[in-house]
Records
---
Amino acid sequence: MMTQFQRKRIKEEIEKQSAAADAGADRFLDKLRASKWTGVILLAAAMGIVIVVLWSLF
């Protein structure tokens, strides 16, 4: 059985890991926004998906 102290420590550790993951994701998104190639890559991916969908319909 866990004590209240153990529960608090586990909760704090989970919150700390979550905050670190959020910060990493934010840095990654900032790098993507700063990249001039992001729009081109996303457009190409969207066009590829559309082509695959249309190809499978006909």
---
Amino acid sequence: MARFALPHVLADLSYRIGHDDAVRNARVELELAEQRIDAAEDLIRRVEAHAVAATARSAPRAAVAA
């Protein structure tokens, strides 16, 4: 009996271990993706702040020239 059941038990365990690894890998990938999104949003905020600052610096010159 064990001779027939053991391969099925091992296959089930192997599947579960593989599934657990896949889930763990997916979670790691999700975390990395979230970090990249945060970094991209940071970069966007810095570029926007730089653009606003550059506009503010050039606005008084344009008003004086007019």
